[in-house]
Amino acid sequence: MSADNDQQAREQLIDLAAQFYDQFELGEIPHMSVPTRTKNNIEYDEEKAVWVYGDRESTRSANSVRGARKLLKAVYTIEFLADQLEADRSSTLRELYYLSESWDNEEAQFSDQDESNGLIEDLEIVSGVTREDFHMRPEESGATLMGPLHLREQTRRGEREIHCQKDVGEGGYQIPNNPDTIDFLDCDADFILAVETGGMRDRLVENGFDDEYNALIVHLKGQPARATRRITKRLHDELDLPVTVFTDGDPWSYRIYGSVAYGSIKSAHLSEYLATPEAQFIGIQPADIVEYDLPTDPLSDSDINALESELEDPRFQTDYWEEQIELQLDLGKKSEQQALASHGLDFVTETYLPERLTEMGVF
Amino acid sequence: MTSFQSTLGDEPGIAEELAESQQSISIAEFFEKNKHMLGFDSGARGLVTAVKEAVDNALDAAEEAGILPDIYVEIQEAGDYYRLIVEDNGPGLTKDSLPKVFGKLLYGSRFHAREQSRGQQGIGISAAVLYSQLTSGKPAKITSRTQGSSEAQYFELIVDTDNNEPEISVEETTTWDRPHGTRIELEMEANMRARGQLHDYIKHTAVVNPHARLELREPQEHFKFERATDQLPAETEEIRPHPHGVELGTVMKMLAATDSQTVSGFVQEEFTRVGKKTADSIIDAFRDRYYGREMCWRTPRGLDDIDIKGVASNATANKSVAATGAFSDKIASKVADKDRIAHHQLLDIVNESAQECEQEHDETFGDTVQENVAEAIWLEVIDASGADDANAATGEDGDSRLVADLYDLADDATSTRKDDETIHAFADRLAGKFEDLEDDRHRLTRATLREFVDRAADLTEEYDEVSFGETARENVVEAVWDVMATVPDDPPLVRELNGDRDATSDLVDAMRATDIMAPPTRCLSPISEDLITAGLEKEFDADFYASATRDAGVSGGDPFIVEAGIAYGGELPAEGTAEVMRFANRVPLVYQRGACATTDVVKTIGWRNYGLDQPGGSGLPNGPVVIMIHVASTNVPFTSESKDAIANVPEIEDEIELAIREAARELKSYLNKRRSMQKRRKKQNVLGKILPEMATKVAEVTGRDEPDIDDAIARIMNNVLVERQTKANGDGQAVSVVVENNSSTNESLEITDIVSAEPTNLSDGATVVEMDGEWFVKWEPEVGSDDEATLEYEVPDDATFDLDVKGVESEKLTVKQ
């Protein structure tokens, strides 16, 4: 990332502080409006084909003691972020939370990490600068990537050129926090296969699926981090690779697909930057449970609630998903990716994936 | 057989012996032995009561004469005794009346007056004189000077208890520095243990008499209570008694004394709220009781084989056929017009018809003819004519008309469960009672009717073995009484009534039974809400005052008004229970708090609803509160002669409760407001810390100077912001004072800007007053919610300012200058 970029992010933060300053000067009550971040306030952006926030806004205003505290914390955080950018340092969300303890003003300290996380999201939205550009990282390091891709990464210790099959071990290439520091050099892959669980990712690597089918296997590690979604988006946009998502067959996994394809509710302001609307869902589909006669677990109450809530989720209101979710509610069952092993260890690479991918038109 | 009576008779002399030792006692002697009844039960209490009686008299006297009372009370130690001196600036007393006022019990102007006053019986001050002479043996020393006279009268006197007359030992003229007034000096055995009550009495008197100046000097302390108002209480007007509030004895006395000839005149003249119409209602009710009503029997119908016309013409003798026919026709048709008819109504009809025929046929139908005709018809109506006797004897089932009539009435009036047989048997017996009446006009009072019904019912119960209960009997009486008619007889004249106890009792009953408008209230003098507040403000340094004056009510014929006041906070002691001040006719009640209706009411109110602490949810509330209750009436119902506590009369208790609640509602909204102000202050404190810090930080981050945040804070707090801006303008400066109302309500402000130089070009609505080289710019804008108002003026360059804003709570106000 360039110093220019940092400078711009810093200016945008300071503009925000200046906005409060002007509000004071005009005798207005200092305030800041942000879109309401709930399922009810996201809408489909036809042009960009992603889900973004709607018109509903919540106002953080100094009108109340609570609101005033929030704004005070925001100003302190702006100062911290601006300083961090100037010093070209970075920190994690958790560090920010602990760091607030060192601030001279007790009123400005965070009471829990949800509060500081929420505030960073607010600032991202209001300033239009991403968290990564603030040099804020999540705790967990990014996920991994394995496949025929040659790239150059800008690290703090200089540039590194890496081939994601030949230069890495079985663990694969570690996706950095800010994938925008990567340049793609060369790519032999035909498509991207994003996998939810570590076990399945290892199975595919062990079976040499990436080699055999020229697949770029991206490990999602549950709900994918922003970096994972960003690199997937860049690979799709810049290298024109089709994206497929392979998860468990339960409501939580559908949401993983949802956040890759449509963007998540929490980061709908970044949908354009993170979501890959063309991503396709492989499975496990509820229909697969029947077709492949997979071993199942019964749906729990919370599973059923989650499925029903997905039926109301605007992101899942398509014929395909409505049909699948209704079917699953009828079956009352769910299946994991690993359940495919009931037909043998190679069943997934030799039968299931090729069949599904052909069906989807990726091959 | 030996009886006690006969034994007594055997020894003449014992009765005489006993009689010898029996003698009448004077009222003065009686109270000499029963001092406690008048509040002189102990030395401590005696002193307080004496002060109270003297001060009450003084206040009454001054007010009556339209003088603002100025009363001086002094208590001195005089050897073993205490000397009490009370001086007033009243109109003074004449030489003749003075000894009686102070030296004769039950002498006064108030006892017979229906008008609000402190004293009522004419006992108080003479009782104090009596107490003083009993305990110290010294006479009362009284000086009085009437307005305009050059000298004052001086008396030393005691009460001669044997005959309740004043006994004057010294009588002389003297000089006195007061232009008019009365001074009494009493020496008595006493002590100052009740000092607290004494102080309370004087202080409380000052509260409810804000127009009076009071001074109390006692051996240890000296108080002065100045006037809070120069406005005398409205003069009260004496009213005549209300018909609902008089006793039999009173009415008998009034009948003896009245100039009126007729009862109608008497009730209109002597009572309040009785006009012609009400008098008529009273007299109707009186007739019912005195003469009774006459039974109205059903008039003959088609089914009956009574031929009124035939009967009438048979009874008419010696008249032409045409006239007789016309006469009887008229009677028959008039009778047929009525459903029921009473004897006197029949007489009227006959008389009317006779007069009509006289005109038409020129034949006289004299009294005898009329009487005969009426008699004949009436006998038919009550089924008592000789012709029917034969019928009755022969026909077993031929019931008399009366039975059938009474049967229908009783059947409607009693429950459906009674079978026809029973009702029929009862109606038969009741009809028998009517037939047995000597007076065949069937005239009887309700009491007699009740006797008849009881008798018939008793017999029915006895012979037919059915029950005929109280309710059924009462219902039958009611039904029969309803169809009976009030008689037209003139009520007795007043002179006939005079001395006739039973008839007078009928009259009193009649007055009570008649609906009469409540008595007028001009005889009352409430303190008024404003003056209650003024009185409380004068004696209690509190944060909040509320008061309420209710509309007048009536209890036992006497009108009354209840008022309440509440003081809260400030210097009132926050610990312990509320102080309850009780007043009756502007006199503080100091003793027997627990026995008083006012205290009972205060205890039953749920004070928590009004924002006060009340342990257990009942009883006296806790906290810095004074609750004041004033009951004004022409006759305050006290629990005893010593007038310490108001009796539990429901009508008065209800009004006391409503008055207190009315004032308490204001207290509640005050407390709520205070709480919200506290909350606002807390918020302001927190924001007052956070926002400047935020401003500092924002300035740091943006690298600018610290922003001005007063406006923002005023807005956040929904405050009223008053800001002065100045601008150089040639030689001088242009000043503008801007009021910005950020609150949700309209605000009225009083703004005073004190300027050291003369302001010019003042904008509209403001005024300038110069005082000692300073100019006071006064401006009282009314600024709506979210609105602004501006005051502008110009002053020389070197002027200094001082801005003072009133009319807005300090919590809601931000002033910038």
UniProtKB/TrEMBL annotation, chain A:
Q: Write out the entry's keywords from A to Z.
A: ATP-binding, DNA-binding, Isomerase, Magnesium, Metal-binding, Nucleotide-binding, Topoisomerase
Q: Where is the Spo11/DNA topoisomerase VI subunit A N-terminal domain?
A: 69-135
**Residues that, per the record, bind Mg(2+):** 196, 248
Enzyme Commission identifier(s): 5.6.2.2
What are the names of the required cofactors?
Answer: Mg(2+)
- Cite a single Pfam family from the UniProt record: TOP6A-Spo11_Toprim
Q: Which GO terms describe its cellular component?
A: chromosome
**Which reactions does this protein catalyse?**
ATP-dependent breakage, passage and rejoining of double-stranded DNA
Boundaries of every Topoisomerase 6 subunit A/Spo11 TOPRIM domain copy: 191-357
The record, for PROSITE patterns, names: TOPO_IIB
Is-annotated flag, keyword Transferase? no
Q: Where is the Type II DNA topoisomerase VI subunit A all-beta domain?
A: 139-188
Q: Answer whether the UniProt record assigns the keyword rRNA-binding to this protein.
A: no
The biological process GO terms on file are:
DNA replication; DNA topological change
In this protein, the active site sits at 98
Its Gene Ontology molecular function terms?
ATP binding; DNA binding; DNA topoisomerase type II (double strand cut, ATP-hydrolyzing) activity; magnesium ion binding
Q: Which InterPro entries match?
A: Spo11/TopoVI_A, Spo11/TopoVI_A_N, Spo11/TopoVI_A_sf, Topo_VI_alpha, TopoVI_A, TOPRIM_Topo6A/Spo11, WH-like_DNA-bd_sf
Function of the molecule? Relaxes both positive and negative superturns and exhibits a strong decatenase activity.
Give the protein family.
Answer: Belongs to the TOP6A family.
NCBIfam families given in the database record: PRK04342.1-1 (NF003332)
Q: How does it assemble?
A: Homodimer. Heterotetramer of two Top6A and two Top6B chains.
Mind telling me what this protein is named?
Answer: Type 2 DNA topoisomerase 6 subunit A
Species in which this protein is naturally found: Natrinema limicola JCM 13563
Question: Gene for this protein?
Answer: top6A
From TrEMBL, chain B:
- The UniProt record lists the Histidine kinase/HSP90-like ATPase domain at 42-192
What GO terms are given for molecular function? ATP binding; DNA binding; DNA topoisomerase type II (double strand cut, ATP-hydrolyzing) activity
- Per the record, the coiled-coil ranges are 653-680
Extract the SMART domains matched here.
HATPase_c
The stretch of residues making up the signal peptide is none
- Alphabetic keyword roster: ATP-binding, Coiled coil, DNA-binding, Isomerase, Nucleotide-binding, Topoisomerase
Catalysed reaction(s) here are: ATP-dependent breakage, passage and rejoining of double-stranded DNA
KW Lipoprotein (keyword) present = no
Which EC number(s) are documented for this chain?
5.6.2.2
Q: Which residues bind ATP?
A: 57, 88, 109-110, 119-126, 643
Task: Determine if Coiled coil is one of this entry's keywords.
Answer: yes
Top-level taxon of origin: Archaea
Fetch the PANTHER family from UniProt. Answer: DNA TOPOISOMERASE 6 SUBUNIT B
Subunit note: Homodimer. Heterotetramer of two Top6A and two Top6B chains.
State the protein's purpose.
Answer: Relaxes both positive and negative superturns and exhibits a strong decatenase activity.
Q: Which family does it belong to?
A: Belongs to the TOP6B family.
Q: What is this protein called?
A: Type 2 DNA topoisomerase 6 subunit B
Q: Which organism is it from?
A: Natrinema limicola JCM 13563
